[in-house]
Specification:
alpha/beta, TIM Barrel, eight-stranded parallel β-barrel, two-stranded antiparallel sheet, 11 helices, globular, binds ligand PBG
Length: 329
């Protein structure tokens, strides 16, 4: 650390004296290029449904996607993330609907690629929880989530989504060894340019509650996800997860949730020179939204959280505020 002087010669307030000067010495920036917008999709037509646990976020039927995508493309948001709300009649123990080429996600990918070409990237979750009757990310047998059996399905899900036009495959399931197997299958199917954004560091978190309501898996979920998602008491394990996924072929790494895990984001960036994406998850969104709604804090608090992610080393942020923030920055 270089100490260049001391008071009264040195007054750190001098550099903060006016707006132009604060801008001049500003160390971090936030732009629309940093934002990834999640979109929830539901079946039917002409639907824009509110979500009880997430004020201001909606589920769109596929035909209604342009009502949110037009603005995202106009404001130059680089990428959207798609999540389906699957009809419970289509759910079963092994999440078969994940492999249906006409499921909601596949239909949405085709519509977006047809209408917007390469003006915006598409990222898709790879995991079974929106499709399983028990709400888990993998195959459940005798109370256990089966790792390798789940991967076999995830590999197929990845190839199908990529064939439909998904640009970035994002496994969020936390099975061991899935990145390598997915990479291999994509390459074999001539999909060498499909990127993999690995949710390498995904903690078993209470902050996912509103999301599970949004995709309709909360009522189904039996137990918790602690045998596959990470223990929030751990740090070293994050490093091990990331290094494995990089070796297996991940192009980018996700840290999730974001705000309670700034130390992990920083650690990831310092140890691995690879794009780090942080996910400001649904619980973080709802906390902020509810506090703003009550007048306890103002809307500028949102920007403040996004800068925290940038400061700690995130290259981009998945946030349900993306479309609103893109309009004002
Ligand atoms: C499912 C998935 C979850 C989220 C993204 N993908 C929830 C979970 O693991 O239960 C959470 C996103 C959020 O809370 O905003 N694989």
């Amino acid at each position: 650390m270089i100490i260049t002087g001391k008071y009264p010669n040195l007054r750190l307030r001098r550099n903060r004296k006016s707006d132009w000067c604060r801008r001049l010495v500003q160390e971090n920036t936030l732009s629309v290029n940093d934002l990834i917008l999640p979109i929830f999709i539901t079946d039917g037509i002409n639907k824009k449904e509110s979500i009880r646990s997430m004020t201001g976020v909606y589920r769109y039927s596929v035909d209604k996607i342009p009502t949110i995508l037009d603005g995202a493309v106009k404001n130059k948001i680089p990428m959207v993330a798609l999540f389906p709300y699957t009809n419970s009649k289509l759910k079963n123990n092994i999440g078969t609907e994940a492999l249906n080429e006409n499921n909601l996600v596949c239909k949405a990918i085709r519509l977006i690629k047809r209408k917007y070409k390469s003006k915006i990237g598409i990222m898709c979750d790879v995991a079974l929880d929106p499709y399983t009757s028990h709400g888990h990310d993998g195959v459940l047998k005798k109370g256990k989530i089966l790792n390798d059996e789940t991967i076999d399905i995830l590999v197929k899900q990845s190839v199908i989504q990529a064939q439909m036009g998904c640009d970035v495959i994002a496994p969020s399931d936390m099975m061991d060894g899935r990145i390598g197997k997915i990479r291999k299958a994509l390459d074999k199917n001539n999909l060498q340019n499909t990127q993999i954004l690995s949710y390498a560091v995904k903690y078993a978190s209470s902050f996912y509650g509103p999301f599970r309501d949004a995709v309709g898996s909360n009522k189904n979920l039996k137990g918790d996800k602690k045998t596959y998602q990470m223990d929030y008491k751990n740090t070293d394990e994050a490093i091990r997860e990331i290094s494995l996924d990089i070796k297996e072929g991940a192009d980018m790494i996700m840290v999730k949730p974001a705000m309670p895990y700034l130390d992990i984001i920083k650690l990831a960036k310092e140890n691995f020179k690879i794009p780090i994406i942080s996910y400001q998850v649904s619980g973080e969104y709802s906390l902020l939204t509810n506090a703003i709604k009550k007048g306890l804090i103002n809307e500028k608090s949102i920007i403040e959280t996004l800068y925290a992610f940038k400061r700690s080393g995130s290259n981009a942020i998945v946030t349900y505020f993306a479309d609103k923030i893109a309009k004002i920055i």
